[in-house]
Write a structure and sequence with these properties.
286 residues; alpha/beta; Cobalt-precorrin-4 Transmethylase, domain 1; Rossmann fold; 3 domains; 4-stranded parallel beta sheet; 40% helix; 19% strand; flat; binds iron/sulfur cluster; 4 iron, 4 sulfur cluster binding; metal ion binding; iron; 4-hydroxy-3-methylbut-2-enyl diphosphate reductase activity
């Protein structure tokens, strides 16, 4: 039976991650390169890059590199100190920091130099937040949702930014607290719309399909969220990491006519395409 397969718009990589992965992938295969930490939390992508001579290296091992070795900065970006260190080693730095994140670095650096204290709404252990904090001498106040700010002493002159993947709800909660105490408040909402747009498109699509397939890591929070949204609208929603988890028998033996597909932020296009191919294979096997 011929089925219609619809891939949700904005599935998979956001602009910044795609740019970083493309930077690491589109190179001469002979040339050895390094990424500072895994370019993305997807083992398939990391293994594929290793096959083309791109290896992840941690900052603690940076001394093992030779002058002029190429190191790629991933989309999360890094602190000023890390950038200075890489420069001091005379490495060939390819900066694939997402331009939206670089913009936050610049703003935080400028306002910090103008005497503002910096507050970041986000997860203090997330590499992006660690990087941003490194553009204001690691002096930022970091809060997830403001619940720890109620009793804290808030600086009078404050610039607030957010992790790009933070929830609007947390941003609003924090601002509602700061507004009561700050004398001079600069609020730069740096939340990126990529996640929200991906979720909205998945929601719209899941309302009109017989089967919705969400592709992504089982431990990935953005993939789990996509799954929950789709499941609310389409009871027949599957969460798979790749095409090997999709059974041809399952597809063959149903009267599913329209299949929707979306994918989490760490899922490359080629994994999405392999799922599509598997569905087509099931059609042929009928
Ligand atoms: S800022 Fe947006 S586009 Fe850039 S890496 Fe983060 S989520 Fe992706």
């Amino acid at each position: 039976m011929k089925r219609e397969i619809i891939i949700a718009k904005n599935s998979g990589f956001c602009f910044g991650v795609k740019r970083a992965v493309d930077t690491a992938s589109n190179k001469n295969i002979q040339e050895k390169m390094y990424t500072l930490g895994p370019i993305i939390h997807n083992n398939d992508v990391v293994s594929k890059l290793e096959e083309s001579n791109v290896f992840s290296i941690e900052l603690s091992k940076i001394d093992s590199l030779n002058e002029s070795d190429t190191i790629i900065i991933r989309s999360h970006g890094v602190s000023k100190a890390v950038m200075d260190l890489l420069n001091s080693k005379n490495l060939n730095i390819v900066d694939a920091t997402c331009p939206y994140v670089t913009n936050i670095h610049k703003k935080v650096h400028d306002y910090h130099n103008q005497g503002y204290s910096i507050l970041i709404v986000g997860d203090k252990n997330h590499p992006e937040v660690v990087g941003i904090n490194g553009w204001c001498s690691n002096e930022a106040i970091i809060t997830k949702d403001g619940s720890d700010l109620e009793t804290a002493e808030i600086p009078k002159k404050l610039c607030v930014v957010s992790q790009t993947t933070e929830k609007q709800e947390n941003w609003q909660k924090v601002l509602s607290i700061l507004i009561k105490t700050s004398k001079e408040l600069v609020a730069l909402n740096t939340i990126c719309s990529a996640t929200e747009v991906r979720q909205k498109n998945a929601m719209v699509l899941s309302k009109k399909v017989d089967l919705m397939i969400v592709i992504g890591g089982k431990h990935s929070s953005n993939t789990t969220k996509l799954f929950e949204i789709c499941k609310e609208n389409c009871n027949n929603t599957l969460l798979i990491e790749n095409e090997t988890e999709l059974s041809i028998d399952f597809l063959k033996n149903t009267d599913i006519r329209i299949i929707g597909i979306t994918a989490g932020a760490s899922t490359p296009d080629w994994i999405i395409n392999q799922v599509v191919d598997k569905i087509k294979l099931a059609e042929k096997a009928e």
